[in-house]
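Entry type: protein chain
Record version: 2
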Amino acid sequence: MHARKSATVEAPLSPWAEPGKAGEHLSLEDFPSFLFVRLASAMQRDVTASYLSEFELNAPQWRVLAALATYSPIPFGELVKLSMSDKALVSRSVQAIAERGLATVESDPGHGKKLVCSITAKGRALYQRVLPRAQAAQAKILGLLEKEERVALHAALVKLRAALDKKLTA
């Protein structure tokens, strides 16, 4: 019997390891923004939509409802910033959940033209029903990664977000 040599296969080098000073080594598929958008779209399509449809919500409505559950009452402009969506989409989402009695929109007493959005008791009850499903779905996604990968990814995303919030990108 001959001793069997184990073949060591090295993992391919990440395109992010050496992107080049001007990103010249990155293809479109390697762009962080491209990967993030594809991942977010896949998660929304394959994960989020599967449980939100049971509650007759779409992803933008869920984001608004979740924001209201945490920050209610909140000025409409702040809700737009918080949701990181465009004003029209947030407006349609607020209108849709308000029509279902999940939220209210009122004029700000101190600023007549400004609107303040609030979650209703019915909205909070729905949020409490959806939240465990959302948490379980997100945990399942995170479970695809090893603990070290989850920790490193979280740290990297927080670092990128902080840098972008400070507008340090050139």
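Comment: The CA atoms of residues 61 and 93 lie 5 Å apart.
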